[in-house]
Amino acid sequence: MQIIKKVLRRIGVLGTPETEDQNDMRMLSDISVIPCNVEPLRGVSTISLSDILLDGEHARQWEETCADPVLRAIPDVRRAVNPGDRRALHYMMDHFRPKRILEVGTHIGASTAWMASLLKRQALEDGVSFSLTSVDVKDVNCEQTKYWLNFGADCSPAERMSRLGVSDAVRFIASDSLEYLRETPDTYDFVFLDGNHRASHVYREIPHVLDRLSPGGVVLLHDYCPDGKILWNQEPVIIGPYEAVKRHQQEGKKLVPLPLGALPWETKYGSRLTSLAMLLKDDR
Hints:
It is built from eleven helices and seven strands. It is an alpha/beta fold. Helix 9 runs parallel beside helix 10 (199-211).
């Protein structure tokens, strides 16, 4: 009977229909507590955002990378990581120099391409190979549907990797992230979470990500809105990642979200705000 009432309430038979966010929060509340091992995470006391974002060498490398015509061809479109966020991601990768990277949410492969380009340079400098795995629930490289054309991209993410000369080091997986994380034996130094932003999904995703994280690893969240508040008037607030992390914290897990906040450069809508946030452990 309780299940029937929930369904009727959701479709509006019993009062006002639920919004998508209300439905998501109800789904989040229905999930039993999931254990979460935060130990592999880098500690918040070890991070200085100013050291990362104001580093002159990172800026120089960014300018050099921007000259690549393969990267310049990537459009700035909805749902893709905006140019200002790409720059922040570039600085993060340049600072931490990870060798095994997982991206959840490929879309047109904008962030994939920027990460792969930098990783290629670092691999040559360090003499150590890298691997980048990008997971998306859609087959974003399907030649029949040509998903990328819907967003003005000139080629598929896989083709762009070929043009960058990194096809051997980058693989694309068409899968739900939870299914992939449950089944993969691989571990990662750096995880960029930018897939399904529903709180009920991100809450379940985080423990799996931490189980696959190398000691001292870094997790970067996209579309994290601090306190669940709107960042840009031109866009609706996305509450999922914030609410997912908050519930883990309320359950006593020592997770600390560190929003990047206002960047030293423009992101979008004439602002410097970013929805990027690092997920760290409380080691204070």
